[in-house]
Amino acid sequence: MGVEFAFTISAVAAVCEFIVKTRTGTGPCEVEAVGRCAECGYAFCASHSSAQFTDLCAKCVADRAAASQRSRADAERAIDEAPARIAAAAAILARSSIAPERRSYKWEEKRLLRTATVEHALEPAWPVGTFTWAQPETQRQGPRSDLRTGVTRSGKIVPMDVAIDGESPLIVSPTGLDSRGTILQVAAAIEDLARRT
Ligand SMILES: [Zn+2]
Ligand SMILES: [Zn+2]
User: Fold this and answer.
1) What is the whole-number distance in angstroms between the Cα of residue 45 and the centre of ligand 2?
2) What average pLDDT score do residues 40-67 get?
3) In terms of DSSP bridges, do strands 115-134 and 176-177 run parallel, antiparallel, or are they unpaired?
C-alpha cells in the first residue's frame, strides 16, 4: 500500500492542469497537484480533487453524477410511457387478423350430489411471454408466480391462465408485475407482435 501511494505521488504532474479564470482570462490553475484523474488524465490540486475519490478529479465526479441522474430520469420516463406504448400496440393488434387468445377460469362447484366444473370466460389477450407476478398480501417478500402473461385489447396486462383482481372469480390477485422495469419488456413484446401485422 505504502509503495503504491509513493508511486502515485511521484507520477503526478507538479501542478494542477485545470483551466481556471485568471486575471488575464483563462489558464491552468497551477496550484501544487495532489493527484491525477484516472478518467480525464489531468493532474489536479486539492481544491480540484473530488471529496469521494482519490483518483478522480472534481469535474469528472460531477459529470458522472449528472450522467447517472440523466439515465435515472430517462428510465423513469420510459416506464411512465410504457402503458401508452402497450395500449397503442394493442389497438393495432385489435384491428389486425392476429386474434387474441381466449382466456378462461375453471373451478369446481359443489352441486347437490356432485361437483360440476364451471368455466368463466375472461377477456382474451395476446400472449407476450412469461413474467413474474407478485401477490399483494405478501408485498415484496412473499410468494411470486411465474405466469404466462398477455395484453388485452384495452392494453391491460393480464396472466393468461388465471383471473386477476377485477376479473371475477378471483384466484390470484397480483398487484402487478414483479418489478416496474418489467413493463418495458411487455411493451417491447407487444410492439414486436404488432409489427408482424
Ligand atoms: Zn477528471
Ligand atoms: Zn487546481
Assistant:
1) 4
2) 92
3) antiparallel
Considering every ligand atom, which ligand is closest to the CA of 37?
1
Dist. CA 13 → ligand 2 center (Å): 12
pTM over 0.85: no
Nearest-CA neighbor of 48 among 69, 24, 28? Answer: 28
Contacts of 54 (CB under 8 A, 6+ apart): 35
| Ligand with the closest atom to the CA of 55 | 1
CB under 8 Å to 57, separation ≥6 — which residues?
18, 35, 37, 39, 40, 42, 44, 48, 49, 50
Q: What average pLDDT does this structure show over 65-86? A: 93
Span from the CA of 51 to the centroid of ligand 2 (angstroms): 14
Say how many Å lie between the CA of residue 61 and the centre of ligand 1: 7
Q: Which ligand is nearest to the CA of 58?
A: 1
Distance 126 CA to ligand 2 centre (A): 60
Q: Where are the beta strands (DSSP E) in 2-156?
A: 19-22, 25-28, 33-36, 43-45, 101-110, 115-134, 144-152
pLDDT of 7-25, one tens digit each? 445 454 589 999 898 888 8
Distance 49 CA to ligand 2 centre (A): 8
pLDDT band at 69 (very low <50, low <70, confident <90, very high): very high
Number of Cβ within 10 Å of residue 28's Cβ equals 15
